Amino acid sequence: MDEQLKREVIVYSTPTCPWCQVAKRYLEGRGIAYTEVDVSADHQAAMDMVRRTGQQGVPVIEIDGEFVIGFDKARLDALLG
């Protein structure tokens, strides 16, 4: 449990993205704290996300510097342990 508490998790999302909602509910269900970044309201964050991942779509989930594109449950589980 302590390992999960130390993780830095950022969810890049938009308010109208249904898969973003699924991803956030999944993290919440696992007790994973995260920071949400609304890329529709934060142009600089959106540009940074695209620069770092090459992706314009959301959700993009960053876990300790590793990126998960979309709601990829298997990859999330692998990174979250």
Q: Top keywords for this entry?
A:
81 residues; alpha+beta; Glutaredoxin; four-stranded mixed sheet; 21% strand
Characterise this structure.
The protein is an alpha+beta fold and 81 residues long. It has one domain (2-80): Glutaredoxin (3-Layer(aba) Sandwich). It contains 4 helices and 4 strands; from the N terminus they run αβαβαββα. The protein has a 4-stranded mixed beta sheet, sandwiched between helices. The termini are close together. The model has no long low-confidence stretch (mean pLDDT 93).
SSE diagram, text form:
Elements: H1 2-6, E1 9-13, H2 18-29, E2 35-38, H3 43-53, E3 60-63, E4 66-69, H4 73-80
Parallel strand pairs: 1-2
Antiparallel strand pairs: 1-3, 3-4
First and last CA, distance: 10 Å
Strand order of the largest sheet: 2-1-3-4
Helical fraction: 40-55%
CATH class designation? Alpha Beta
Q: Tell me the overall shape.
A: globular
Number of domains: 1
Please identify, by name, the CATH architecture. Answer: 3-Layer(aba) Sandwich
- Mean residue pLDDT: 93
Low-pLDDT segments? none
Q: How would you spell out the order of helices and strands?
A: HEHEHEEH
Radius of gyration, in Å, reads: 12 Å
**Proportion of strand residues:** 15-25%
Biggest sheet features: 4 strands, mixed
Structural class: alpha+beta
Summarize it:
With 81 residues, the chain is α+β, with helices and mostly antiparallel strands.
